Amino acid sequence: MEREFRLHWRKYVEEKGLTISKYAQYSNEYTKQRYLWLRKKVISILGGKCANCGNVDLRCLQIDHIKAVGSKRKTPYEDFKKIIKGETDNFQILCANCNAVKKHDKKEFPNMVRGN
Ligand SMILES: [Zn+2]
Fold first, then answer.
1. CA of 57 relative to ligand 1 center, distance in Å
2. How far away, in angstroms, is 75 Cα from ligand 1 center?
3. I want to staple 98 with a disulfide (CB 3.0 to 4.6 A). Which of 10, 25, 48, 52 is the partner?
């Protein structure tokens, strides 16, 4: 997986006209690109579209826990790793709208302003 990302990163850097030797200078960009690349990969593994309405716009797709896992999760990378390993049972893709509706209906956000 890391090797695959490095190939992607090398191509990205070349297309931007940067050089690999300036790697350190672009470490924030490296981290950001790695996150986006992994996110895209994981979304694709989970079907690439909102499980409720079928929206395929990557900008608004979110990785959702089918059953809430509380505050145990530290970073999105932990979920990415699980999904890449094939532990996909408790994950689905939802778009931002469907995820908001799910959270509203299940009252996952007790402080959320209700639009009654
Ligand atoms: Zn949706």
1. 10
2. 23
3. 52
**φ and ψ of 91, to 5 deg:** -120, 150
Which residues lie at CB < 5 A from ion ligand 1? 50, 52-53, 55, 95, 98
pLDDT in tens, 67-93: 887 766 678 889 999 999 999 999 999
Question: For the chain, what is the domain count?
Answer: 1
Spacing, Cα 88 to ligand 1 middle (Å): 19
Residue 111 domain flag = no
* Residue 95 neighbours by CB under 8 Å, 6+ apart: 50, 52, 53, 55, 57, 60, 61, 62
Residue at 51 is within a domain: yes
Query: 93 and 43 in contact (C-beta within 8 Å)?
Result: yes
Which residues are CB-neighbours of 50 under 8 A, at least 6 positions away?
A: 56, 61, 93, 94, 95, 98
Using the mean position of ligand 1's atoms as its centre, give its distance from the Cα of residue 4 in Å. 30
Residue 65 forms part of a structural domain = yes
